[in-house]
From TrEMBL:
It comes from the Bacteria. InterPro entries: HIF_prolyl_hydroxylases, Oxoglu/Fe-dep_dioxygenase_dom, Pro_4_hyd_alph, Pro_4_hyd_alph_FE2OG_OXY. GO terms for molecular function: ferrous iron binding; L-ascorbic acid binding; peptidyl-proline dioxygenase activity. Keywords: Dioxygenase, Iron, Metal-binding, Oxidoreductase, Vitamin C. GO terms for biological process: cellular response to hypoxia. It holds the Pfam family 2OG-FeII_Oxy_3. This is Fe2OG dioxygenase domain-containing protein. Its cofactor is L-ascorbate. Residues 106-200 form the Fe2OG dioxygenase domain. It comes from Acinetobacter tjernbergiae DSM 14971 = CIP 107465.
Length: 207
């Protein structure tokens, strides 16, 4: 069943919202393939790559270097109109998640992420011990194609303790609870994505 709110987002392909909600409830994560039209993904990827010179090392905060990640990021704002369309899709999705799970999601924060060859993000949680208001994490993959031996997979432990290896396939959206343990395995090719968090004023998961 396609939610009418989601249909309002430009370039959005039909996908099964009921299945997404069922998977989130049972496993804490869900995957959606072929999210957008190919034309939109290509133009979005171009918007990303045309700003690569503005990316900064994500592992450097206030001059302190983190050793758990080596990717580069660019926060998304009003100067990136194509990426804003993706954020609008996530805002519509947030409404459906609020209705299903009473998450109280109020906003979306997002950045482009670039993993160059040799870069990674070690095991972590986006909302460790519910210390921030990130409720749902999402990753949308932008590169044109991806081979299994290029690495860069999302390795994630679901809410039942089972581990999954998620391939970063083009035009795929991964959605998961922000308190789940996960990592990005070392990439052997340039890996492009939009990482976004659906944020709430409180941190209670009803799944």
């Amino acid at each position: 069943m396609q939610d009418p709110l989601l249909s309002q987002a430009l370039n959005l392909h039909p996908w099964n919202l009921d299945q997404v909600l069922d998977d989130l409830n049972e496993f804490g994560f869900a995957l959606i393939d072929d999210v957008y039209s190919n034309d939109y993904v290509r133009t979005l990827a171009h918007e990303c790559t045309s700003h690569l010179a503005e990316f900064r090392a994500a592992g450097v905060q206030n001059g302190v270097v983190s050793h758990i990640r080596s990717d580069h990021i660019l926060w998304i704002n009003g100067q990136l109109p194509l990426a804003q369309q993706h954020i609008q899709t996530l805002e519509h999705l947030s409404q459906a998640l609020n209705q299903a799970f009473y998450l109280g999601i109020k906003e979306v924060e997002a950045h482009f992420a670039c993993y160059n060859a040799g870069e990674f993000y070690a095991l972590h949680r986006d909302n460790p011990q519910q210390k921030n208001d990130r409720m749902i994490s999402t990753v949308f993959y932008l590169h044109e194609h991806w081979q299994d031996d290029w690495g860069g997979q999302l390795r994630l432990q679901d809410k039942n303790g089972q581990w999954h290896i998620i391939q970063p396939l083009a035009n795929r959206l991964a959605i998961f609870q922000s308190d789940l343990l996960h990592e990005v395995l070392l990439s052997k090719q340039q890996r492009l994505s939009i990482t976004a968090w659906l944020r709430s004023g409180h941190s209670i998961w009803h799944g």
